[in-house]
Structures are given as C-alpha cells and as structure tokens.
Design goal:
Elements (H helix, E strand, L loop, with lengths): L6 E4 L2 E4 L9 E2 L1 H5 L7 H14 L3 H4 L3 H11 L2 H27 L6 H10 L3 H13 L3 E11 L4 E11 L2 E9 L14 H10 L3 E5 L4 E4 L7 E7 L4 E5 L5 H23 L24
Parallel strand pairs: 6-9
Antiparallel strand pairs: 1-2, 2-3, 4-5, 4-7, 5-6, 7-8, 9-10
Helix pairs in contact: 2-4, 5-6, 5-7, 6-7, 8-9
Length: 291
C-alpha cells in the first residue's frame, strides 16, 4: 500500500488529515471497505499446510515433537508473510506506474530507479507488461496519485490515476496480481468497484498537502471506472458496470456507518462489567433453614 502525505496509520485503521500539520479525522476508503466481513481462514490454513509440507526439515522433525512444533509455528505465519510480501511488491509496481505517468506529463520522475528496483527483485516483467498496456491503450495521464475527500459521508482516499483513454475520462485503480496455472493474470476482487465509486463520489481533491489546500473535485461527472490488474504475463483492464454502481455506493455508505459505530462502541467504555452475588435475604416467616 502506498503512503500519501496525508494518510496516517491509527488504532482505528488508516485515516486522513486535511494537512500535514493536522490530526487525521476521517477513515480512508480502504479502511471503510475493510468493515465488510472477510473470511480468510481457509486460505491461511492452506498456506500453512503447504509451507509445512514443503519444509525440507519436516522428515527429520517427524520423531522430534519439539522440533515439529517449531516448524508448525513457523508455517502458521506463511499467510502473513505472503500478504506482506505481496503488499510490498504492489507498492513497487504502483511506484513504477506513477513514474510512467509523471514522465508522460513532463514532470520530474524516477522512472529508471523504479524499474531498476523491480529488476533487482526479479519483478521486471510487471513493468514490461504495464508499459505494453500503457502504449496499446494510448493512456493520456491527467493526475497520478490524487487524494480526494468527501465531507458529506466522511472519508478520504487516493486514486492511482486520472487519465483519458480513447478520448474518455477514466478513474483508474491498479492491482498487482499473481499468475494462475494457465499463465493468465488472476482476477481482481469485485470490491475494486466500491473503491472506484467512492473515489468518483469525492467532493474535493488535494491541491497542496503542506498548506492543506483543497479544490473542487473535477473528475466525477460520468467517468469510466477502470480496475487494471497488472501481472507478469499480461495486464487486464476491467470496467465497472455502470448499472451496479449505485448499489456499491450504498454498501460503501453503510460500511462507513459501521466504522463510525464501531469507533463509538470502542470509546464508550467497558462492554462487560463484573457483578457480585445478590445481597443475602432473610428467610421468609415459617421457612426452615437448610442444614
């Protein structure tokens, strides 16, 4: 995940401030989306079992319970390690995409360094496929990495790119994806539609982070919303279906309310309080005491 200037990691998730000198006040788009239930236990178990099965030390540990427990403990972290590595790779690919846009805009860039960092880690194929897609689709960048704000609902976020493709305005979110057994880039999660529609519904966009200056959001009028999956073998752009946008927007607004209520509940005080037995009561007249 990239780190825009006004984004902050907090106990309540990623949040945004209005300037670099102010405290964060609203959740990020991704923090709001994270309020939706997501059961990854099956995948985590699969990762742990696969890692343990492939561990070269497993045969020698089969008769040593203490050593076997150590291998199992290490394997249990496989999903977390995979997730973190994928996030770091995604940051590098996003950085490269941003530098491609900056160069096309004639602005200062670090394109060479960004591609070299990918090459040094064996990830240059992502850059090659991305650049092929960029040229094939004739991308005309407008604003890369643009931070947006919605006061009415109360959230902020950063869009990867505002651009024109084929003469149409597009709001674009890049997703770095692995490759399946058929050599194709893996499918994106449909949650990208919610992320894009939240960006489209922004009311302001950042002009200057240092001063905390904002201007009216100028790109929300009927843009094409594109999720672009970047893989080592191909890049697959997918357009958000205009017919479903309102439902994803309603869901996002509901999740924003969930985030707020969760925050209120956590700040309200202890949810469970200790309680003692009731005070002893005198026996009713005529009742015999138990021996």
């Amino acid at each position: 995940m990239t780190s825009p200037a006004l984004a902050h990691q907090t106990d309540n998730g990623r949040m945004y401030s209005r300037s670099i000198n102010e405290l964060p006040t609203v959740p990020s788009i991704t923090t709001v989306m994270a309020q939706a239930p997501s059961d990854m236990t099956g995948w985590a178990r699969h990762m742990a079992a696969t890692t343990l099965a492939r561990d070269p030390g497993l045969p020698g540990a089969a008769s040593d319970p203490a050593r076997l427990r150590g291998l199992a403990k290490e394997a249990s972290r496989a999903a977390e390690r995979f997730r973190d590595a994928a996030a770091e790779r995604g940051d590098r690919v996003h950085a490269y995409a941003e530098q491609v846009a900056l160069r096309a805009l004639g602005r200062p860039h670090r394109l060479g360094e960004a591609r070299e960092e990918l090459r040094a880690r064996g990830e240059e194929a992502f850059a090659a496929r991305f650049y092929e897609w960029w040229q094939l689709y004739g991308v005309e960048p407008g604003v890369p990495e643009i931070t947006v704000w919605n006061h009415e609902v109360g959230y902020a976020g950063t869009l990867d790119l505002v651009a024109k493709i084929g003469g149409r305005l597009c709001l674009i979110d890049f997703k770095t994806k692995g490759t399946d057994r058929n050599g194709q880039v893996k499918a994106m999660d449909e949650k990208v539609v919610m992320q894009l529609v939240a960006g489209m519904k922004a009311q302001e966009s950042l002009v200057g982070a240092q001063a905390g200056s904002w201007g009216p959001w100028a790109y929300g009028q009927d843009p094409i919303l594109l999720g672009v999956a970047i893989g080592e073998t191909e890049v697959r752009p997918m357009r958000a279906n205009p017919e479903v946008l309102r439902y994803h927007w309603y869901k996002f607004c509901a999740l924003r309310r969930v985030w707020e209520v969760q925050l209120q509940a956590s700040e309200a005080g202890r949810a469970l309080l200790p309680i003692g037995p009731p005070a002893a009561r005198p026996l009713a007249a005529g009742a015999a005491a138990l021996d």
